[in-house]
Amino acid sequence: MTPAPSICLTGTAHFGAHQLFPPVQLEIDAGTWSCLLGPSGCGKTTILRLIAGLETGVDFQGQIRAGDGQPIPGRVAYMAQTDLLLPWLDVLGNVTLGARLRGAPADTAAAKDLIARLGLGPHVHKRPSQLSGGQRQRVALARTLMEDRPVVLLDEPFSALDARRRADMQELAAETLTGRTVLLVTHDPGEAARLGDRVFLMDERGMVEAVPPAVSAIRGADDPDTLAFQGRLLAALRAQSAA
After folding, report:
1. pTM for the predicted model, two decimal places
2. Residue 72: CA atoms inside 13 Å, Cβ hemisphere, count?
């Protein structure tokens, strides 16, 4: 894997005459996790798709650049809010889909190991229709992790999981994505408090940064500083809603 670059997005976006978000500046440090929180409809997913080079339907005026000066497309793994699993493939086939689409040999052993670590070992040959929503989301996460790209964009990857499984998956993702440049969109202030090296709050008025505890991520869910930061994030989100 090539070294993970920093990424900087600056600009504004419109849907026709409607401003989706005002001028913002998002700086994502190389090899770390950045978290983006905010109400639905403020443009968080659009920012992910802009960085990934995907269609957004918006008029974006600004620039997106990697700190190493190299193009970003081709170096990104992206996990959408929906699992986008192919219904005719089993779990293993969906997890190794990227390699197959590129005409490359799939690392089946690594895929099966990751599937097992995600608690899906007994389901490796099941089709998506035979899985629960949380299981499907774990398959989509495994497919993203298998891509082994230096930049990883995650759109609420743990939202369909119960609390215990969510904590487990956060820790596995943090371990697996060590050294990658990760941008995580989430509505969960507790998740951002655990995972974020940098945390950004966004609404229709713009973007501000919240400073996390000095202890490195991934932080203990019961750590007092983490819980205090979670409380500050929740208060800020409530203030956004009231404004």
Report:
1. 0.91
2. 25
Task: Please determine, for residue 40, whether its predicted confidence score (pLDDT) is greater than 80.
Answer: yes
Percent of the chain with pLDDT over 70: 99
CATH architecture designation of domain 7-242: 3-Layer(aba) Sandwich (3.40)
Angle at 195 between CA 71 and CA 185, to 5 degrees: 55
Question: How many other β-carbons are positioned within 10 Å of the β-carbon of residue 220?
Answer: 11
Contact (CB, 8 A) for 6 and 29: yes
The alpha-helical segments, DSSP class H, found in 72-119 are: 91-95, 97-101, 108-117
Mean pLDDT of the chain: 91
Cα(47)–Cα(80) distance, integer angstroms? 12
Asked if 40 and 214 touch (Cβ cutoff 8 Å), the reply is: no
**Cα–Cα distance for residue pair 25/3, rounded to 1 Å:** 23
Cα 67 from chain centroid?
20
pLDDT of residue 1: 61
CA distance 43 to 113: 36
The strand pairing partners of 134, in sequence order, are none
Over range 218-224, report the average pLDDT.
89
Q: Are 4 and 183 in contact (CB under 8 A)?
A: no
